[in-house]
């Protein structure tokens, strides 16, 4: 093994000289030397190893709202990074150059968990985000980074599709303070044909997050014209969210643009996002947002009790801030669901690349 390869524990041997990876519901069955669909987990010496520990496709300081998280430390900077590969095969991937990468040159930067935590602290970041590609495939690295961050009082955020098995899911989310989970659609047909995954595994993970953890989480659905944007599907999805997860889980409806293997589908009209937001709110979702478009109304947060604006947003810039020091509406005193500090952060919309290795 090289210095970037470590042993993992979520696997078992089969009777035919293969090893099955038990990290995610793909259950890749690998001969010696083979890699899983994610490309970063492989069979070496009859065990599953992670081949990208300590390596990154790059580091950057983002606004937390870009993850997107609107109810977690608003206005603060988040130290963001990803690796390479993914355990889904989304034909519409908007980060395919990273998530579908098979080139080791993609992993041009490197850092130990302690170095990441130290750098985030020095740069004044309130949190570290595992993003750009799905962190479940580099679980061991993410968990170690999270532990180093907690020692310095820094929060950790997972941006994930939530496609992970029961046992590793416990370890993964125990390390996280917040998550944005892609609920890519609400039909098994969509998941199977367009992502190579299964819907129920994602729903099970959301139920686990809500009922068995203290992780703050928000949902994102990329609306693709003609694929997952019908009124009937949006009705079923948003009703399930309210009934199963509760009305306080924020939902983000974001715009698709032609990419990867779906260049023949047009970009999502802004009216589609507004329609989705309206359906969600009609079904009891208290905090529904539009994304990837300029829509101050759809980007801002309102008190579900009195309707007053609580947090005004214009892209990633905050304007209005009408919360008291306890995260309650200044007008009527109703608490806003989420994790808030006494004052809003002032990072704004800046994106600042950071290089850690020489």
Strand content: 15-25%
Which parts are unreliable, with pLDDT below 50 for 5 consecutive residues or more? none
Q: Which superfamily, in CATH terms, is the homologous superfamily of the largest domain? A: Aldolase class I
Oligomer classification: single chain
Biggest beta sheet attributes: 9 strands, mixed
Q: Give the CATH class of the largest domain.
A: Alpha Beta
In percent, how helical is the residue content?
Answer: 25-40%
- Count of structural domains: 3
Please give the count of helices: 9
Q: Report the order of strands and helices.
A: EEEEEEEEEHEHEHEHEHHEHEHEHEEEE
Estimate the global geometry from the Cα principal axes.
Answer: globular
Could you give the count of β-strands?
20
Class by SSE composition: alpha/beta
Tell me the distance between the termini.
23 Å
Mean pLDDT, all residues: 94
Gyration radius (Cα, Å) is 20 Å
How do the strands of the widest beta sheet line up side by side? Answer: 16-15-14-13-12-11-9-8-20
């Amino acid at each position: 093994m090289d210095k970037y390869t470590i042993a993992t524990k979520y696997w078992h041997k089969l009777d035919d000289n293969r090893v099955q990876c038990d990290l995610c519901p793909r259950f890749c069955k690998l001969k010696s030397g083979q890699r899983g669909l994610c490309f970063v987990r492989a069979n070496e010496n009859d065990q599953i190893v992670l081949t990208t520990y300590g390596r990154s496709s790059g580091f950057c300081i983002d606004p937390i709202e870009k993850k997107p998280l609107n109810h977690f430390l608003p206005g603060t900077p988040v130290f963001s990074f990803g690796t390479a590969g993914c355990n889904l095969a989304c034909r519409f991937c908007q980060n395919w150059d990273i998530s579908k990468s098979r080139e080791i040159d993609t992993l041009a930067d490197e850092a130990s968990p302690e170095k990441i935590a130290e750098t985030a602290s020095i740069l004044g970041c309130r949190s570290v985000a595992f993003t750009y590609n799905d962190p479940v495939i580099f679980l061991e690295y993410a968990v170690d980074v999270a532990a180093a961050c907690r020692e310095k009082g820094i929060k950790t955020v997972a941006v994930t599709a939530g496609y992970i098995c029961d046992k590793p899911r416990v370890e993964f989310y125990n390390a996280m303070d917040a998550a944005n989970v892609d609920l890519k659609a609400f039909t098994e047909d969509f998941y199977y044909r367009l992502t190579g995954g299964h819907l129920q595994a994602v729903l099970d993970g959301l139920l686990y997050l809500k009922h068995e953890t203290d992780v703050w989480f928000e949902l994102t659905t990329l609306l693709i014209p003609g694929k997952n944007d019908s009124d009937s599907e949006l009705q079923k999805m948003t009703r399930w969210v309210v009934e199963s997860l509760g009305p306080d889980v924020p939902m983000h409806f974001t715009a698709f643009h032609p990419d990867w293997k779906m260049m023949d589908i047009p970009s999502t009209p802004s009216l589609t996002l507004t329609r989705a937001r309206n359906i969600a709110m009609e079904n009891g979702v208290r905090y529904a947002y539009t994304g990837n478009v300029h829509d101050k109304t759809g980007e801002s947060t309102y008190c579900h009790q009195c309707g007053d604006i609580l947090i005004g947003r214009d892209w990633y810039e905050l304007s209005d801030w009408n919360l008291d020091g306890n995260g309650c509406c200044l007008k009527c005193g109703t608490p806003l669901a989420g994790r808030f500090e006494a004052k809003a952060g002032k990072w704004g919309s800046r994106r600042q690349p950071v290089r850690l290795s020489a």
